[in-house]
Amino acid sequence: MVVYQFIQDSDAYNYLDNRGDWAALERGKPLARSWRPPRVGVDEHAGRWPDFPSLLLSIPVFSARAWETLRPLVGASVEALPLDCPAGPSYFAINVLDHVEALDHDRSEVERFDDGRVMAVDFYAFKPGLLRGKHVFKLPETARIEVLVSNDFKELVEKHCLTGLIFKELGSAS
């Protein structure tokens, strides 16, 4: 399986205003029962609404069309939480529930803060077998700064011409 970083293309498309407290969506805990759709602002600088508008690096947002397309693949690993968006199509904040301890620290190149926390990963190496069947997930070390997806996710996005994503290949996981 090839692993990609999920990157929203905020240069080419309109994006959502990230003001507000989004920390609960970075923890990987279910929120659907208590969720109240927050109102999000918009920046319409590009004049085009994507299927994956930018909000924060660690919080994917799907259009209703993207959610219907990807739900069979990722539905067991995420919650789609509605957003109150005054313009553009209907959008969902995606709460990624799969946080997988799959980063092989011995083989990866990792930059750390003075306290030992991971600042960035320059080269990804994954522990064997842990990502089998995972199509959208986070690593606990980088959950606040990135979302990772499988090649199956990427191929489905491309097959259905869903817009607004850039995929950065990070490496293979067996």
Write the SSE topology.
Layout: E1 2-8, E2 15-16, E3 42-43, E4 61-63, H1 64-74, E5 78-82, E6 91-96, E7 109-112, E8 118-123, E9 136-137, E10 148-150, H2 151-159, E11 165-172
Search tags:
28% strand, 174 residues, 11 strands, alpha+beta
Task: Give a written overview of the molecule.
The protein has 174 residues and is an alpha+beta fold. 11% of the residues lie in helices and 28% in strands. The strands form 4 sheets. Strands 9-10-1-11 form a 4-stranded antiparallel sheet. Strand 7 and strand 8 form a beta hairpin. 33% of the residues are buried.
Overall geometry: globular
Strand order of the largest sheet: 9-10-1-11
Largest sheet: 4 strands, antiparallel
Q: Kindly report the oligomeric state of this protein.
A: single chain
CA radius of gyration is 16 Å
How many DSSP helices?
A: 2
Order of helices and strands: EEEEHEEEEEEHE
Structural class: alpha+beta
Mean pLDDT: 94
